Amino acid sequence: MKTKLSLPTASSTFERIKRVQPSGAECWCGRDFARVLGYTDYRNFETVIEKACAACLNSGQRVEDHFVEITEMIEIGKGGQRAVKTVIMSRYACYLVIQNADPTKPLVALGQTYFAVQTRRQELADDEALKEDRMRLVLRAEMKQHNKKLAGAARQVGVIQPLDYAIFMDHGYRGLYGGLGMRDVHQRKRLKPREQILDHMGSAELAANLFRTTQAEEKLRRENVDSKDAANRIHNEVGRKVRKTIHELGGTMPENLPAAESIRKVEGREKKRLNGNQKKLSGDKSVLE
Q1: How far apart are CA 16 and CA 19, in angstroms?
Q2: How far is the C-alpha of 238 from the C-alpha of 230, rounded, in Å?
Q3: Are 136 and 269 contained in the same domain?
Q4: pLDDT band at residue 5, thresholds of 50, 70 and 90?
């Protein structure tokens, strides 16, 4: 009776050779990839990579974002090493490579399914990340505008000096953050001295602070506030009510939310994306003309 040989699962095989860069990005080495697929001569695999790069370009992606040529040292026996050229590939690059690989090789068919599923998962995750980035940009811009309005409302009731305004703002934070002042929140989020709290808030935390800011401004303008102490009390009261609402809705308290990536990096990434889209549209227009 013949014993049927079982192939390793695609998941275990491709996850085993996966590399993780210092930034946290996942990638695969071309030579590792060729070996597990069964390419004994790397030169044959380079032809597959060329086809994958062409497919990447045709899909509107930047090839250099997914295929990066490097030189690595490999063992050649007796402790010796030799420099060889290879390519570092993103998950999307692996998907394109596997689509252009020899379909008669056993792991190729399994790999096609694996990277199709994994690439789709990554696309969905990227979509969510893009939505979060855009939401943060909108809310942060709103915060800038409404903080100015809140400062104006506070100024009308006597909160004029920088120290007075800092105390006024601290009262609002203490109400919303369960007694934690601005400095406490800054430390809890493990931010660097020059990093601003608002620049490292996710969309949920920004929304809570925007609600605090707008409601405090309206309440100051609506009520006959005649002192700095009264303004501080109102700001703290509004913060506590926003916190109570979050609790009643089953949300995470703002002090327990993790610090987000700097909004400056998000702005740079969004600007780069928009410029890329603009260039693509310009290219499409020239082709049509």
Answers
A1: 8
A2: 12
A3: yes
A4: very low
Question: How is residue 22 written in tokens?
Answer: 């210092």
pLDDT score at 3:
41
Q: Are 188 and 234 in contact (CB under 8 A)?
A: no
Residue 184 shares a structural domain with residue 251: yes
Same domain, 67 and 132: no
CB 185 within 8 A of CB 114: no
Exposure string over 236-259, b if 16+ CB within 10 A, otherwise e: bbbbbbbbeebeeeeeeebbeeeb
What average pLDDT score do residues 159-167 get? 95
Residue 247: domain span: 128-277
> Could you tell me which residues come within 8 angstroms of residue 270 by beta carbon, excluding any fewer than 6 positions away?
133, 134, 137
For residues 198 and 206, is the Cβ–Cβ distance under 8 A? Answer: yes
Q: What is the pTM of this model?
A: 0.57
65 and 157 part of one domain: no
d(CA 249, CA 177): 16
Domain count, the chain: 2
How far is Cα 43 from Cα 84, in angstroms, rounded to an integer? Answer: 12
Q: Write the Ramachandran bin of 28: left for phi over 0, alpha for psi from -120 to 50, otherwise beta.
A: beta
